[in-house]
Amino acid sequence: MQQLAEQFDAIDFHSEIYKDAYSRINAIVIEGEQEAHDNYIRLAELLPEYQNELIRLSKMESRHKKGFEACGRNLQVTPDLQFAKEFFAGLHQNFQIAAAEGKVVTCLLIQSLIIECFAIAAYNIYIPVADDFARKITEGVVKDEYSHLNFGEVWLKEHYTESKAEIEQANRQNLPIVWKMLNQVADDAHTLAMAKDALIEDFMIQYGEALSNIGFTTRDIMRMSAYGLTAA
Question: Residue 5: in which H helix or E strand, if any?
Answer without folding.
Answer: helix 2-9
